[in-house]
Amino acid sequence: MIARTIANSFKPVVRYQMPKIPAKAMAEVAEKAAKQAVYVVPTESTWYQIKKKIINFASNIDVGKAQVHAVTEDMAAKAQAKVKPGDILIRRTEGTSGNWFIPSWWKHAGVYVGKGEVVEATFKGIHKTPFKNFMTEGDHVMIIRAKNLNASQSQSIVNYANHQIGRPYDFDFNFSDEARQSCTELANNAVKAGAGKELVQKNWIGSVTGDAFKNENFKLVWTSTAKKAKWNF
């Protein structure tokens, strides 16, 4: 009887305090928890390490520099005025052997996260790079935006990309495992996190290429070359 009386005496306090926690604070706590989630670096088998070295070597051979870095700083400045957080940047750079191994005309992708920065996955891992650098390291660039997304969904794209920073590149090109991610894999997963569904169609081996983003679910925001973009949606 005494124990029940003591327990009941605390109920009004609990009922009074719970509504005091604002929804914004709860969201911030959830966001902080997501950032602090334990990430276990995937182990690399001997074969994986050999494969990584082979791909690194075979993809970085200069094969001609007729148009390398054709996107100028002036072009990048014009694009900067139109890009928004959550946009996807698709790029092609001429003169590298890596172009031979990717079954797509567009070879590289990144996620614009605001404040003049792009999150991209390169052989060195997932990291941020200045928007101007991302642009001027290419010969052809287009900026695209998923259609019909609200501000919260666009921010979710940004949040997803930022949370992947520090993770390794995916030399297995396994699009079903997010522990490691390639460039188009990162862009696709980020958009999926914002839209809540897949907006590109994976190819027959289950991967996403740069060309896969050219569909009716995206709109063209800016391009360095209209002829190569060929946007007819």
Report on this structure:
This protein is of the alpha+beta class and about 230 residues long. About 35% of the residues lie in helices and about 15% in strands. It has eight helices and six strands. It has helices spanning about 1-15, 25-35, 45-60, 75-80, 130-135, 150-165, 185-195, 225-230; strands at about 90, 110-115, 115-120, 125-130, 140-145, 220-225. A six-stranded antiparallel sheet has the order 4-3-2-1-5-6. Strand 3 (about 115-120) and strand 4 (about 125-130) form a beta hairpin. Helix 6 (about 150-165) runs antiparallel to helix 7. It is globular. The termini are far apart.
Name the descriptors.
alpha+beta, 6 strands, disordered N terminus, 37% helix, 233 residues, 6-stranded antiparallel β-sheet, 8 helices
How are the SSEs ordered, and which strands pair?
Layout: H1 2-17, H2 23-35, H3 46-58, H4 73-80, E1 88-92, E2 108-114, E3 117-122, E4 125-130, H5 131-136, E5 140-146, H6 151-163, H7 183-195, E6 218-223, H8 226-229
Antiparallel strand pairs: 1-2, 1-5, 2-3, 3-4, 5-6
Helix pairs in contact: 6-7
